[in-house]
Amino acid sequence: xxxxxxxxxxxxxxxxxxxxxxxxxxxxxxxxxxxxxxxxxxxxxxxxxxxxxxxxxxxxxxxxxxxxxxxxxxxxxxxxxxxxxxxxxxxxxxxxxxxxxxxxxxxxxxxxxxxxxxxxxxxxxxxxxxxxxxxxxxxxxxxxxxxxxxxxxxxxxxx
Length: 159
Fold this sequence. Notes:
By secondary structure, the chain is mainly alpha-helical. It has helices spanning about 1-30, 35-65, 70-105, 110-140. α1 (about 1-30) packs antiparallel against α2 (about 35-65), α1 packs antiparallel against α4 and α3 (about 70-105) packs antiparallel against α4.
């Protein structure tokens, strides 16, 4: 059951971050200032209110799954999750709050653009790190195939 919870929480967190990024880029390209302010407001709430528990549940369930394991894949997953957490706490959350403040005040100046760029880069980095963790999680799962790949038989050939 922990494996299912872990997978669903990780998928939700990744989907939320991708939605935040996609919405931000789309509204920046085709939206008006009011639409940008609305997207920034929705990212802060309810967006962060959904993302933070999803990330926490992902981390806690991942630690529970890993409690009796060791190895290079696990070490890489843990290191990447530390980076994801630091990126989220030190860059993404403050950027989201600050961009919401700027947008709600109608300040779409160079400062807004710089922080928007920083948020987009940090968000892309988190998605990449989380995708690598998903890949390694599938590799660590015994008896579970990596999605999109055929299992090899004992002779090393595909069925």
